[in-house]
Amino acid sequence: MAITNSNKQTDEFNEYKVLRDKPHWPGQPIIDTAIKGRDTKMPDTTIDSSIFNGLNRGRVAIFIDGLNLLHTALQLGIEIDYLKLLCRLTNSSRLLRAFFYIGVDFTNEKQQGFLLWMRRHGYRVVTKDIVLLADNLKKPNLNIEIAVDMINLAPYYDTAVLVSGDGDLAYAVNAVSRMGDRVEVVSLRTMTSDSLIDVADCFIDLDSIKKHIQKDSNLGYSYRASSNSNF
């Protein structure tokens, strides 16, 4: 996999350069000072999200492994509020992009409604078809898409937030770190590979922030698909 030189000005990154000037999800004003080139530190395995407070994270890009997060929510016994999640992970920093990667069944109207809602509320949704093979559903793996996006966008953000516990992404995280960016891994500790934690700058256990990202029980909105839906 080729890593793009951050000094090259190619057409491939024209969209990303525009996004640097106009973040898709602007947070509260911060001093926009790059954090690239910092001295290397040992990974911070603090699980309290308060580590974000007072930290200049620069421009933030979020990469969410959707299937991994759904399994985590089941383990925690909660339903994720994706607006709360986005705000919590951004934490008043300037957001470049928030990607949500998921396998899709286009015959599932409820799922299509959910993804439409996500697209209209700050997420860039990346999908791959679920294929039926010999009466068994093949779960699509989007690790390649996550890794490529993390590396290609690395010159244009300062902090990557990876919501996944999959150890197969450790190499991509290490590559991004070598390019000078900070990488934060957010996942459930019991479902997170040690190899991923070892190469990250910090790790946050989703169990420690679940009260901040779970959907309120009395919240009335739904993700059902409807031609007259007003998201």
UniProtKB/TrEMBL annotation:
GO molecular function annotation: RNA nuclease activity
Species name: Komarekiella delphini-convector SJRDD-AB1
Sequence ranges assigned to domain NYN in this UniProt record: 59-207
Pfam family, one: NYN
Protein name: NYN domain-containing protein
UniProt-listed InterPro entries: LabA, NYN
Domain of life according to the entry: Bacteria
Transmembrane segments: none
